[in-house]
Design brief:
The protein is of the alpha/beta class and about 400 residues long. The chain has 2 domains: about 140 residues, Aspartate Aminotransferase, domain 1 (Alpha-Beta Complex); about 260 residues, Aspartate Aminotransferase, domain 2 (3-Layer(aba) Sandwich). It is built from 14 helices and 17 strands. The strands form 5 sheets. It has a 7-stranded mixed β-sheet with strand order 4-10-9-8-7-5-6, with helices on both faces. Strand 13 and strand 14 form a beta hairpin. The longest helix has 21 residues. The radius of gyration is 22 Å and the shape is globular. About 45% of the residues are buried.
């Protein structure tokens, strides 16, 4: 797909922040894997909610509460359709991917994983999909097993299959690596896990903004993602869970709205999804996420994926042609993430110098320290692209890398 099939100028005009000047230079925002930018339509929707619709939801019978409740539940239905989930009650609103994963660890893991049981993770995981399972393993005496990867950043499927045995009780796996952009064959891996009776959680934080999703096709038991990486506000995330899984889980938090009745002798929990949404939820953020989904659907996830693949291919071509620059993560199937290092230059210095020309990238270990350890580096510089980026911005990235090399030569 060429840029001409998407009106990039029109799309960029939807994002007011892209007109920003940094150090007198036009902003080149290439940090989308950390957080994407927000279109005016989402900003306007949030403002309208605050000005005209704000109230706490559920229970009350006055106009504002009923309106806010409807908008909140309508957002849940938008997420359901976005994921092609069977039912809206399979959609749990959380604060983000991290809380969604922790919810599953507490609600499912603590109830069904015990001493000597094994949990499969991968070498590509974000800390948010490592630490909760470490906590559970320490508490229960369970064991973590790690799927290894090759130098390209691809998981070794034969080694993955060999990890399964009668002790395997759960698998938690990233759909797309935030550090490298590797797209894991999660449908195939989920099917294999299910043949062994093992439930699967997929961390979809880096996949949901960039490709069409179908929970019935993937057939995972849980799927987690964040709103702020897909043109929505911060403070909102989603946990999809198969109803049969959610129904047998224990609540993650106690409080209002997750109960049917309370006495000092006993509490009866509410039905899903309310069972997992204790207290006042992120109403405004959920409505904003629903509007962001409308916006992405209006462009088309297939178009977004194809265009971002073009950007990645172009960026890979430009950056790999530069002397003394090493691209880290060269999987055959990748999302629009380009991690790299410049010989003799610390990534933080790379980011600082690029910032002087208005180019925003991410530097550090990207909350994926095991990945950095695998490649023998303390950190990488990471450029990550969205559908509102352009080839001209990638040219500025390449020019910036040359400037870094000149300064350190």
């Amino acid at each position: 797909m060429k840029a001409g099939t998407m009106n990039i100028d029109k799309i960029r005009a939807d994002f007011p922040i892209l007109g920003l000047q940094v150090s007198g230079k036009p902003l080149v925002y290439l940090d989308n894997a950390a957080s994407s930018q927000m279109p005016q339509t989402v900003i306007d929707r949030i403002v309208r909610y605050q000005k005209e619709e704000h109230s706490n939801i559920h229970r009350a019978v006055h106009y504002l509460s009923e309106l806010a409740t409807k908008q909140y539940e309508d957002a849940r239905i938008k997420v359901q359709h976005f994921l092609k989930a069977k039912e809206s009650r399979e959609i749990i609103f959380t604060r983000g991917t991290t809380e969604a994963i922790n919810l599953v660890m507490h609600g499912y893991g603590r109830a069904f994983i015990g001493k000597g049981d094994e949990i499969i993770l991968s070498a590509l995981e974000h800390h948010a999909n490592i630490v909760p399972w470490q906590m559970l393993a320490q508490e229960k005496g369970a064991v973590l097993r790690v799927i290894p990867m090759n130098d390209a950043g691809e998981l070794l499927i034969d080694k993955f299959e060999a990890l399964f045995n009668e002790k395997t009780k759960f698998m938690a796996l990233s759909h797309v690596s935030n550090a490298l952009g590797t797209i894991n064959p999660v449908k195939q891996m989920t099917a294999f896990a299910h043949r062994h009776g093992v439930p699967v959680l997929l961390d979809g934080a880096q996949a949901a903004p960039h490709q069409s999703l179908d929970m019935q096709d993937l057939d995972c038991d849980f799927y987690a993602f964040s709103g702020h990486k897909m043109c929505g506000p911060t403070g909102i995330g989603v946990l999809y869970g198969k109803a049969k899984m959610l129904e047998k889980m224990q609540p993650y938090q106690g409080g209002g709205d997750m109960i049917l009745s309370v006495t000092f002798e006993k509490t009866t929990y509410n039905v899903i999804p309310a069972k997992f949404e204790a207290g006042t939820p992120p109403i405004m953020a959920a409505i904003g996420l629903g509007t962001a989904i409308d916006y992405l659907n209006g462009i088309g996830l297939a178009k977004i994926e194809a265009y971002e693949k073009e950007l990645l291919d172009y960026a890979t071509e430009r950056v790999s042609a530069l002397k003394d620059v090493r691209i880290i993560g060269t999987a055959k199937h990748k999302a629009a993430v380009l991690s790299f290092e410049i010989k003799g230059v610390h990534p933080h210095d790379v980011g600082t110098i690029l910032n002087e020309d208005g180019v925003a990238i991410r530097t550090g270990h990207h909350c994926a320290q095991p990945v950095m350890q695998f490649y023998g580096v303390p950190a990488t510089a990471r450029a990550s692209f969205a559908f509102y980026n352009t080839r001209q911005e990638i040219d500025k990235l390449a020019d910036g890398i040359l400037k870094v090399q000149e300064m350190f030569s």
